[in-house]
């Protein structure tokens, strides 16, 4: 493939990724799946339809990097450091704020689910018993 792992993403490519990522069904699948290769294969195919030639690994890496950078800036802002910024912060904020609060709280506390750890589904009854 002509686009290597080290090739930088253009602004248009990132915008295309964000447009696909912002779709409700994509956000829902990304939230509910630990092994998400199939979702990123689908995202890569959708991006190809939009003229962006990236493989699923590149899409997953960019997704993870954007989320990490977003959370870093968001944490800096809540800590009082408004100087830290990123180009697509508002777009990502709109996408990531629509994810369930339980996942965001777990990730902000530095805890992520591993492939061997069971995924907990919270409900009003389990919240009140814990």
Automatic annotation (TrEMBL):
The Myb/SANT-like DNA-binding domain, residue ranges: 7-95
InterPro entries documented for this protein: Myb_DNA-bind_4
Pfam families cross-referenced by the UniProt entry: Myb_DNA-bind_4
Domain of life: Eukaryota
Name of this chain's protein: ZSC20 protein
Source organism (scientific name): Tricholaema leucomelas
Gene (UniProt): Zscan20_0
């Amino acid at each position: 493939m002509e686009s290597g792992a080290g090739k930088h993403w253009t602004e248009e490519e990132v915008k295309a990724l964000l447009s696909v990522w912002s779709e409700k069904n994509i956000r829902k699948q990304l939230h509910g799946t630990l092994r998400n290769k199939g979702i990123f294969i689908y995202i890569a195919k959708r991006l190809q339809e939009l003229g962006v030639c990236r493989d699923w690994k590149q899409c997953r890496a960019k997704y993870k990097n954007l989320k990490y950078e977003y959370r870093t800036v968001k944490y800096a802002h809540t800590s009082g450091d408004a100087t830290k910024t990123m180009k697509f912060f508002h777009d990502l904020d709109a996408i990531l704020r629509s994810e369930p609060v339980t996942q965001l709280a777990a990730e902000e506390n530095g805890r992520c689910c591993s492939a061997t750890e069971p995924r907990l589904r919270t409900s009003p009854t389990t919240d009140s018993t814990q």
